[in-house]
Amino acid sequence: MASSFTPHPLLSFSHPPSTPPPKALIAAPPPQPPTGSPPEHQQPIVQIGIGGSNKRGGRRGGGSARISGVGSTDWVASSLTRRFGLGAGLAWAGFLALGVISEQVKTRLEVSNQQANAWDVEEEEEVVLPNRIRYSELRVGGGVVPRRGDLVVVDLKGSIKGAIGEEFVDTFGEKKKPLALVMGSRPYTRGMCEGIECVLKTMKRGGKRRVIVPHKLGFGEKGADFGNGVEVPPLATLEYIVEVEKVSLAPA
């Protein structure tokens, strides 16, 4: 017996034709800012770095704003860690990392004054100290003299007096790193000696001297072996050129 099926009026299998949404409901793209100069409220970018002046203005290549220079003090901390232990290295690393920005901002005028107060000596005059160290001023620096515990960064060239072209240490040059010394601390870094620390006590930032160190305040009766065939013989009188790049007060 054939049966017929009549769909319920509420059940419908037909699909209504799809219609596009009203134009008023279509989201419009956000308005684009006008090209040209940036808005007046936008702050200029400031880049701060060790040893360089602040630069204000736009960026080249669309790079992000950054503050550089903290990483450049890593070599100082690592050098001090090797010589004076982890505690001393970390203490100076933290001091330099946290103080580098404030030093660049707060003491910019002070550093400028120190550099302005430094002047080259036209005629060298030799000074003889009671301990028989002799030195001649090549450039008089500005600022404060270092005290015990202060960090002094210097460029150093040392040779045996009378031996031409045989330097046992030389940090002058663009690709070379200067040496760091904490006043009153031992041991000395490569090429330094007690005579150099004695001379640094009366030098200022930017100062430069030619120094003659007797063997008793140099490497003494044993001399020194720096490896790779670089040696200082016993009882050798030393001749140095020393220049102070930076004097940082000890962390409180």
From TrEMBL:
Keyword tags: Chloroplast, Isomerase, Plastid, Rotamase, Thylakoid, Transit peptide
Keyword 4Fe-4S annotated: no
Ranges of biased composition (kind: Gly residues): 49-64
UniProt xrefs under PROSITE patterns: FKBP_PPIASE
Residue ranges of the region described as Disordered: 1-70
All residue ranges annotated as the PPIase FKBP-type domain in the record: 149-248
Biased composition (Low complexity): 1-16
UniProt catalytic activity: [protein]-peptidylproline (omega=180) = [protein]-peptidylproline (omega=0)
Enzyme Commission number: 5.2.1.8
Cellular localisation: Plastid, Chloroplast thylakoid lumen
GO molecular function, one term: peptidyl-prolyl cis-trans isomerase activity
Enzyme class: isomerase
Biased composition range(s): Pro residues: 17-37
Any single GO CC term annotated in Swiss-Prot or TrEMBL for this entry: chloroplast thylakoid lumen
Protein family membership: Belongs to the FKBP-type PPIase family.
Record's function text: PPIases accelerate the folding of proteins. It catalyzes the cis-trans isomerization of proline imidic peptide bonds in oligopeptides.
Name of this chain's protein: peptidylprolyl isomerase
